[in-house]
From TrEMBL:
Lineage: Bacteria, Pseudomonadati, Pseudomonadota, Gammaproteobacteria, Aeromonadales
Role summary: Catalyzes the condensation of (S)-aspartate-beta-semialdehyde [(S)-ASA] and pyruvate to 4-hydroxy-tetrahydrodipicolinate (HTPA).
Keyword vocabulary terms for this entry: Amino-acid biosynthesis, Cytoplasm, Diaminopimelate biosynthesis, Lyase, Lysine biosynthesis, Schiff base
Originating gene: dapA_1
Gene3D superfamilies: Aldolase class I
Name recorded for this polypeptide: 4-hydroxy-tetrahydrodipicolinate synthase
């Protein structure tokens, strides 16, 4: 398996009760993922609350994850922005740090056209040699990176893959036929991830893996080895978690789940997100129980 395959975690950024970065919990999370068999860590993606961290905080978190990982696991750095100059700056900084690749979300809010997306990513790749994984999540960005546009971007040497979170499974075969077998395809939808791999995807960049790292690692090891019965059984156990971790805006529910599992000390997100409601807590706790994660340690 390539280092970019299987279960890759879209890492949360733990915060203190005051909303500052909790580096003690962050180190605990990195060791937990290494010990659990997570294949790579995507730090400071949008699950890491990148839109609400300052640039210096953003880079400090990625540096810390690299230091805590100590070369034992590849680190992907979130370097996307709706500001092309900022995306270039982040890519250049991370190239110098030694991250394995960047994860570059489509510009949110601006609603760029397909030609504008080509121009945006073209500018980034001209300014930095960092390998880039595109990230398409139209439900959060208001912008859909179409397969035909991805195919044109895949011609750029630095563009090595995509995290596809449109919820449209038919895109897997379309992307494969347009971009070739070497172009990396990751699901960004945990509930569709197994089907995504069955159709030819390489793995998942996962929210669920924050709370169920070993289970997700086992699930995707089984899937990539063709052991579909084991993969299906694990996925069924986790399905309620895949779904209920989105009962409120990500990463609100998964932060609460990780606190329940003792992985982080508080479940504070940063404003404008607020902590999980009581009804949301009931849903996530039920899902954690169904996944057999409560009391496992």
């Amino acid at each position: 398996m390539s280092m970019f395959s299987g279960s890759i975690v879209a890492l949360i950024t733990p915060m203190t009760a005051e909303g500052e970065i909790d580096f003690v919990s962050l180190e605990r999370l990195v060791h937990y993922h290494i010990d659990s068999g997570t294949r790579a860590i995507a730090a400071m993606g949008t699950t890491g609350e990148s839109p609400t961290l300052t640039t210096s905080e953003h880079l400090e978190v990625v540096r810390a994850v690299l230091a805590f990982a100590g070369g034992r696991i590849p680190v992907i750095g979130g370097c996307g922005s709706n500001n092309t100059r900022q995306a270039i700056r982040l890519s250049q900084e991370m190239e110098g740090m030694g991250v394995a690749a960047g994860l570059s979300v489509t510009p949110y809010y601006n609603k760029p056209s397909q030609d504008a997306l080509l121009a945006h990513y073209g500018a980034i790749t001209r300014a930095s040699a960092l390998p880039q994984i595109l990230y398409n999540v139209p439900g959060r960005t208001g912008c859909d990176l179409l397969p035909e546009t991805v195919a044109r971007l895949a011609e750029l040497e630095q563009v090595i893959g995509i995290k596809e979170a449109s919820g449209r499974l038919e895109r897997v075969s379309r992307l494969k036929s347009l971009c070739g077998d070497d172009f990396l395809l990751f699901s960004g939808d945990d509930d569709l991830g197994l089907d995504f791999v069955r159709l030819g995807g390489h793995g998942v960049i996962s929210v669920t893996a924050n709370a169920a790292a070993a289970e997700m690692a086992s699930l995707y090891r089984a899937a990539l080895a063709g052991d579909w019965s084991r993969a299906r059984a694990l996925n069924e156990r986790l399905m309620s978690l895949h779904q209920n971790l989105f009962c409120d805006s990500n990463p609100i529910p998964v932060k609460w789940a990780c606190m329940q599992l003792g992985l982080i000390d508080t479940h504070m997100p940063r404003l404008p997100l607020i902590p999980l409601s009581a009804s949301g807590q009931d849903k996530v706790m039920a899902a954690l129980n169904q996944a057999e994660l409560i009391g496992r340690g």
